[in-house]
Each structure stands twice: as structure tokens, then as C-alpha cells.
């Protein structure tokens, strides 16, 4: 019973502090250190959950497709694939939805060639058309604008049914540093605008 009382007292305190912060914001005062700390405390659990989901991506689909590949970043991998696939996607950079992926690619070690598209998207998935030949570089626009993760560790297999799983090392580091209140990738949700 004492625990419930403590939780209720904490909730009332946070609500009162939030109302004070909103009132100060309404009169145009700058963010104080206390307000920034309160924002980090209030958003701690939601941000850790979002960062936990950022660690992986998963694509499930089907179509007239055949693919097999493994990547340890886009600089190192082996694989090939061809054909369209309608997919449900829990993607990189907090993107979710449905899409049609099409195209072909073949890659070995640090070099490859491909012509890939994603279109007819539903949700917040970005469309793209990505043509590459030779070694992929992290400063290419598809990686720089965070449509794809250059550093992803990925496995994909398809024979009419398409499954692609990816781990994102920078997001793992962001999750770990976030536990200690440091936002490595500067992608935490905030209640108070900077």
C-alpha cells in the first residue's frame, strides 16, 4: 500500500511540474536545466522502448522473388536476389508500413551491382530507387538520409516467401548510452522543444 502511495505522489509531483513547465513555456521563458532534466525523466521509459525497437528491422513478404544474402555492413557481404515482393515492414529509422520492393542485386565482399526500388508504400516508409555499381559508401544519399542503414547486419532469404532481418549496431549503442541519459543519435522524443 505504501508503494502505491509513493507512486501516486510521484505522479502528482510530475503532473504539477509539467503544468508549471507549460505555464512558463506559455509566457516564453527559456528552458532551464531543471526543465530539461524533468523532460528526460518523464520521457525516459518511452524513449528506451523506442530505442529498443530501433535495434532491429524485420521485413516479411511474398512474391515472384528469389534471394539469399548476408551482410556485415554494406561494405562486406555476399548474396544475390531478384524479383518483386509485397512486404510488411518494421524498418530502419522508425519506419513502419507496407510496400512493394522490386529489382535485383548481386554483391560479394565489398563490391556489387544492383537496381532496387521500393514503391506503393503505406505508412511512413520512404519510397526509393537505388542503383549502385561497385563499392557502396556511407555518404551515398540513401544512407545519409537514413532510408537504409549502411552499418546494418542483415540476413535475407526468399523463395516466393521473403524474410529479411537486420540488426543496427549504432542503434544498439544508442540504446545502451540512453540507459545513462545520453542520446547518442539525438533521436529521443522530447516534451519540451529546444
Folded structure, characterized:
By secondary structure, this protein is of the alpha+beta class. 31% of the residues lie in helices and 40% in strands. Strands 1, 2, 3, 4, 5, 6 and 7 form a 7-stranded antiparallel sheet that branches. A hairpin with a 5-residue loop joins β3 and β4. The mean pLDDT is 88.
Unreliable spans: none
Give the total of beta strands. Answer: 7
The span between the termini is 39 Å
Largest sheet: 7 strands, antiparallel
Structural class: alpha+beta
The share of residues in extended strands comes to: 35-45%
Number of helices: 5
Rg over CA atoms, rounded to whole Å, is: 21 Å
Can you give the mean pLDDT?
Answer: 88
**Shape estimate:** elongated
User: Strand-and-helix sequence, N→C?
Assistant: HHHEEEEEEHEH
Kindly state the percentage of residues in helix: 25-40%
Q: What count of structural domains?
A: 2
Secondary structure: elements and pairs:
Blueprint (H helix, E strand, L loop, with lengths): L1 H25 L6 H10 L1 H11 L1 E17 L4 E6 L2 E6 L5 E14 L1 E13 L4 E7 L6 H4 L8 E15 L1 H11 L15
Antiparallel strand pairs: 1-2, 1-3, 1-7, 2-4, 3-4, 4-5, 5-6
Helix pairs in contact: 3-5
Amino acid at each position: 500500500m505504501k508503494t502505491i502511495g509513493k507512486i501516486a505522489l510521484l505522479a502528482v509531483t510530475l503532473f504539477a511540474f509539467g503544468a508549471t513547465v507549460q505555464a512558463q513555456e506559455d509566457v516564453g521563458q527559456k528552458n532551464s536545466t531543471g526543465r530539461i532534466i524533468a523532460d528526460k525523466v518523464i520521457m525516459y521509459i518511452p524513449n528506451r522502448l523506442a530505442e529498443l525497437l530501433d535495434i532491429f528491422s524485420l521485413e516479411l513478404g511474398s512474391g515472384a522473388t528469389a534471394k539469399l544474402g548476408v551482410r556485415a555492413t554494406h561494405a562486406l557481404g555476399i548474396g544475390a536476389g531478384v524479383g518483386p515482393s509485397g512486404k510488411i515492414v518494421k524498418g530502419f529509422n522508425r519506419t513502419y508500413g507496407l510496400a512493394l520492393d522490386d529489382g535485383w542485386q548481386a554483391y560479394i565482399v565489398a563490391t556489387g551491382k544492383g537496381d532496387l526500388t521500393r514503391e506503393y508504400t503505406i505508412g511512413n516508409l520512404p519510397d526509393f530507387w537505388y542503383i549502385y555499381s561497385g563499392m557502396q559508401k556511407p555518404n551515398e544519399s540513401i544512407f545519409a538520409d537514413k532510408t537504409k542503414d549502411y552499418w546494418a547486419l542483415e540476413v535475407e532469404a526468399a523463395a516466393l516467401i521473403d524474410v529479411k532481418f537486420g540488426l543496427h549496431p549504432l542503434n544498439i549503442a544508442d540504446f545502451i548510452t540512453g540507459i545513462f541519459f545520453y542520446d547518442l543519435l539525438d533521436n529521443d522524443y522530447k516534451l519540451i522543444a529546444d
